[in-house]
């Protein structure tokens, strides 16, 4: 039987130029840049037998890496699929033209067209600059798709119709939202936003549910669940490679403290076999609102949406 495939979360840097309200980035004690040897060794570990999609993201801003252009060129020569998540602040014309065709999808996080809301959510970023860069990306990307990740905070939902209208006016077609407001490290406990409500919003505005992008196939999703001792579908569908080269237990380990191994020591298949035997980690899982998700009824809904998409 062929092994299942996972998505890889590839962190080029754990440093960030923003302090977004929904991200407890400050929990990272030693933010760092991914060094060249770690980057190229990581690329050597990523293969299409084990990985269906690699998302350059993590808990930092990839476009801020000093070797951004070099690293982007390298993934352009790799046979696997690479996507990138960015806050858009540093996306100038030169960077946009350089990534075109090297990424399959450029996903830009955007909270609201209302500058007051944006300033509260995407702290430290320039609203007008990011808007300009969205327009530039839409204009110059011809071989890489531009997508917008809409922030599922209550204050952003209030201005969602105006935000969607502005994005569509400028030609952006792929609008996505997570059906979960992630409670990473308990940082979002005071925000009440139910998954049921978010799914209704996603349906109402004809958005793409982001969870679908982490399901390579229904068969793979079932294998992920069957093979792992700890039945957490979100964790088991994604493998986090930190800027240090460490494989983390879970992508919600914001502090980067729970290390399974390192890319210099284990292949992706070896570390997946190791992770399959691990159980629940209270330090991470106790405050995570993804725990005990995707049981029978919700999994059926995701499968249905996958088939329809």
Automatic annotation (TrEMBL):
Coiled-coil intervals: none
Annotated GO MF terms: catalytic activity; iron-sulfur cluster binding; metal ion binding
Assigned keywords, A-Z: Iron, Iron-sulfur, Metal-binding, S-adenosyl-L-methionine
Cofactor(s) the protein requires to work: [4Fe-4S] cluster
Pfam families in the cross-refs: Radical_SAM
PANTHER family attached to this UniProt entry: RADICAL SAM DOMAIN PROTEIN, TUNGSTEN-CONTAINING ALDEHYDE FERREDOXIN OXIDOREDUCTASE COFACTOR MODIFYING PROTEIN
Name of this protein: Radical SAM superfamily enzyme
Taxonomic source organism: Methylophaga nitratireducenticrescens
């Amino acid at each position: 039987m062929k092994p299942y495939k996972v998505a890889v979360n590839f962190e080029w840097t754990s440093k960030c130029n923003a302090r977004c309200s929904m991200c407890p980035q400050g929990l990272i004690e030693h933010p760092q840049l991914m060094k060249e040897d770690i980057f190229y060794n990581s690329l050597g570990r990523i293969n299409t037998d084990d990985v269906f999609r690699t998302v350059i993201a993590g808990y930092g801003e990839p476009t801020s890496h000093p070797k951004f252009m070099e690293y982007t060129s390298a993934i352009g020569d790799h046979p696997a699929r690479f996507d990138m998540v960015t806050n858009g602040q540093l996306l100038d014309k030169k960077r946009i033209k350089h990534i075109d065709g090297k990424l399959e999808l450029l996903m830009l996080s955007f909270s609201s067209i209302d500058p007051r809301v944006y300033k509260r959510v995407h702290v430290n970023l320039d609203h007008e600059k990011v808007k300009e860069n969205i327009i530039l990306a839409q204009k110059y990307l011809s071989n890489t798709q531009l997508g917008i990740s809409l922030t599922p905070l209550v204050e952003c939902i209030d201005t969602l119709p105006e935000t969607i209208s502005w994005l569509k006016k400028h030609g952006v077609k792929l609008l996505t939202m997570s059906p979960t407001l992630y409670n990473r490290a308990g940082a979002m406990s005071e925000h009440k936003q139910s998954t049921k409500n978010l799914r209704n919003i996603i349906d109402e505005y004809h958005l793409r549910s982001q969870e679908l992008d982490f399901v390579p196939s229904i068969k793979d999703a079932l294998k992920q669940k069957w093979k792992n001792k700890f039945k957490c579908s979100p964790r088991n569908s994604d493998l986090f490679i930190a800027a240090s080269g460490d494989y983390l237990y879970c992508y919600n380990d914001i502090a980067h403290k729970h290390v399974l191994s390192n890319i210099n020591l284990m292949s992706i298949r070896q570390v997946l076999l190791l992770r399959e035997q691990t159980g629940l980690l209270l330090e991470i899982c106790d405050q995570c609102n993804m725990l005990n998700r995707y049981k029978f009824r919700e999994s059926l809904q995701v499968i249905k949406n996958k088939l329809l998409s």
